[in-house]
Amino acid sequence: MAEDADVIVVGAGLAGLVAAAEIADAHKRVIVVDQESANNLGGQAFWAFGGLFFVDSPEQRRLGIHDSYDLALEDWLGSAGFDREEDHWPRQWAHAYVTFAKEEKRAWLHAQGMRWFPVVGWAERGGYGAVGHGNSVPRFHVTWGTGPGVVAPFVRRTRAAEAAGRLRFAFRHRVDELIVENGAVAGVRGALLQADGVARGKPSSRVVTGDFELRAGATIVASGGIGGNHELVRANWPARMGTPPAFMIQGVPDHVDGRMLAITEAAGGRIINRDRMWHYTEGIRNWNPIWNRHGIRILPGPSSLWLDATGKRLPPPLYPGFDTLGTLEHIMQSGYEYTWFVTDQAIVKREFALSGSEQNPDLTNKDWRLVLGRAIGKRATPPVEAFKEKGADFVVRETLEELVEGMNALTDVPRLDFETVRREVTARDRELDNPYGKDLQIAAIRQARNYLGDRLIRAAPLHRLLDPKFGPLIGVKLNIITRKTLGGFETDLTSRVFGANGSIIPGLYAAGEAAGFGGGGVHGYRALEGTFLGGCIFSGRAAGRSAARA
Description:
Number of strands: 20
Distance between the termini: 19 Å
Helix content: 25-40%
Shape: globular
Largest sheet: 8 strands, mixed
């Protein structure tokens, strides 16, 4: 049968758009198939904070940060902890990605119009020694324009290719099957979904109005992960993390459903590292939700006091922003599924950022006047202040006793003991009586403030939580929020998918989260942050170029 295109890309998210742009630029015909409408072009990446991982960037050098390929690779491998036979290709992807982040990534994206906020963030700080998990230096570069700013160059390129007749978008086309003929993937079949102009991120109709079949010499699966499918999250939950949570909120839209994983597996694709995933522990329920169970993650600075459900302080180095999955593992072993920040207005103003492009109108809309508001005055950004006022997980009080009472009112069973909380807070405050002390979080805050970027906008000056001039006191109930799939289809460095027998499946490629951001798990067990959008870009580019050549 005649081919409808040279390549079919399943998924119009970031990885799919990058792949499609590369294919079209190679003067090949490409069809991008997606179950959602054009309103969701860019997929999950549109909602992102827009952080990208660069190594030895101009932004780093201007801030006096000494980074290198060797240091970044050591940090990556120390975080990934590759220890499985199937980690061969993920390890190759890790080496290739760090090289990309050091050499070509920034210049290539800059040439397409992307720009970055001048202050580099320090995410996932680790705390387990020089060869353990974490970033030794700040590497989190926030894109000017956040997630939409990351997506924009690839939307522009694909729309230009569409206008030139080399690319076609097939929205509201839900793939239900990969066509396999003579051992090779030859296209896709599926259902036409009812037209639905619902706003971006909102759940859309699943009413079927017909069917379709499309054929091509190559098919790229770039359909994302499983964060919107709680059943799949629980089914793949890692045993090392204990029992899956009974209650989780959701950091991605409902259409991040993982359907294509089983469909591609049925066509022979091999999934590895299913139990590697990345969920956050600082989730708050969105007072103004877009999708079901909509949650927002707090991107915290280092100063809030982190307590478990009973009021006991989390052990070192489980401080805000240090070790996402280490904290998740500790929480799941505590017997409870939530934790608390005890903090104050001064810390919230300086240190609370909210993940999501819609939660950062100053950066998303490239408004320097609003950005300057982060550094002056007593109030936090308007979105943070709105959560303080309207969010179901925030408690604001003048005294510690009133705060604990209000925090207990947010749970079915009041588990916080006031004397336990008072002891933790007063002991922490007492450490500020001199420049010495044994509290490692206080030492970490002092180290953070040695970095100009943190001192300017990310780490509040050290002060006592019970000092009323920095108040009022604030308690935040933190929920587990689903986000990223770290495992996926095993691929070689050209994004070709391996079958269960260890051989390449002709005509089949995978990119983005569906491929564990490359190789079936480029991050290993833990990520360094700023590597998810970049992983979509890198693996999407590899898949697009490889499929175009083939």
